[in-house]
UniProtKB/TrEMBL annotation:
InterPro entries: K/Na/Ca-exchanger, NaCa_Exmemb, NCX_ion-bd_dom_sf. Pfam families: Na_Ca_ex. The keyword Transmembrane applies. Its main location: membrane. It is found in: Membrane. One of its GO terms (molecular function) is calcium, potassium:sodium antiporter activity. GO terms for biological process: intracellular calcium ion homeostasis. The chain crosses the membrane at residues 6-24, 31-51, 71-94, 106-123, 129-149, 205-224, 245-267, 279-296. Residues 6-143, 184-317 form the Sodium/calcium exchanger membrane region domain. Keywords: Membrane, Transmembrane, Transmembrane helix. It comes from Haloterrigena alkaliphila. This is Calcium/sodium antiporter. GO terms for cellular component: plasma membrane.
């Protein structure tokens, strides 16, 4: 009976993720076009932060309950999964061109966030003051994106053809913004709830099998909380919304390291398992590989996508064996 219940929960979670991701991508893409903001910016901010909501919920809750291993392992494992498996799958589905803004600002921000996160976790302790510093860095990154929008120099590979259409009246535009905003929020809600259901079901099964807290956090929980990013990016890639697909991955990684880890430490300072060092080593490697692939020729090919997936899956194998 318990098995039947778990299967039903998994099915409900998958359904919520899939339909929620479709609404989220549709709403985000159309909202970006209506208000004249590039899909890349929407992917980096609204979509990325929204799909990272499960990471926030799981890590902060774990920190408050004194389970620092789960909180930190979730961040590290999610980022490896995002950049390795998810970005790799996106490239396999639809090889994409990388914009200058994504390389110059966002990939560098991701690399910087990884370096700072590794430095903070090097002694296996994350203090409340370090958590505040991480959140301040996240606010600075968002400020940089805001300045780019104001200057109008945030380039994107998806042209916005309707932003400057004077034939669209203000009332009609306001109605469209409201409608797509509701669609986006509804999709986000389904994505978050679906992801949470899957995480709870998978975590319960893993813990019942006697798996360590760090391993559960680094693999099962990390993959589960990354499912919203996976489904959202895959749906966006299939619809050729590459700005949202790539921006979602990069933005989520920055948000996880600075926002999720920072807020978790503010909620309760954490001390983590020595296994964090090997996890950080993998994260640094996959971030370096991903950044080089993004910067090389300003394009990510299918072959490079396969390489990213291989690195991401190798992390899972190493974590399980270790």
């Amino acid at each position: 009976m318990a098995v039947v219940g778990a299967i039903a929960l998994l099915a409900a979670g998958i359904g919520g993720l899939w339909f929620g991701a479709r609404w989220l991508v549709d709403g985000a893409s159309r909202l970006a076009t209506t208000v004249g903001i590039s899909p890349l910016v929407v992917g980096l901010t609204v979509v990325a932060f929204g799909t990272s909501a499960p990471e926030v919920t799981v890590s902060v809750t774990a920190a408050l309950e004194g389970q620092g291993d789960v909180a930190v392992a979730n961040v590290v494992g999610s980022n490896v999964f995002n950049l390795g498996v998810i970005l790799g799958i996106v490239a396999v589905i639809a090889p994409f061109r990388v914009t200058n803004a994504l390389v110059r600002r966002d990939a560098l921000a991701m690399g910087g966030a990884t370096a700072v996160g590794a430095l903070v976790l090097a002694n296996r302790d994350v203090s409340r003051l370090e958590g505040v510093a991480l959140v301040v860095l996240l606010v600075a990154y968002l400020g940089a994106i805001g300045l780019a929008i104001r200057r109008g120099d945030d380039d994107d590979d998806v042209p916005n053809e309707t932003a400057g259409d004077s034939s669209v009246g203000r009332d009609e535009s306001a109605i469209s913004v409201g409608r797509e905003g509701v669609r986006l929020l509804a999709g986000l809600g389904l994505v978050v709830v679906g992801g949470r259901i899957l995480v709870d079901a998978a975590t319960g099964i893993a813990i019942s099998l006697g798996v360590s807290a760090w391993l559960v956090g680094a693999t099962v929980v990390a993959a589960g909380t990354s499912l919203p990013e996976l489904v959202t990016s895959v749906v966006a890639a299939r619809r050729n919304d590459m700005g949202i697909a790539a921006g979602n991955v990069i933005g989520s990684n920055v948000f996880n390291l600075l926002g999720v880890l920072g807020v978790s430490a503010i909620a309760r300072p954490m001390t983590v398992d020595p296994a964090v060092r090997s996890g950080l080593a993998w994260l640094v490697v996959v971030t370096a590989v991903g950044t080089v692939l993004l910067a090389t020729d300003r394009r990510v090919s299918r072959r490079e996508g396969v390489a990213l997936i291989a690195v991401g899956l190798a992390y899972w194998v190493a974590s399980a064996v270790g």
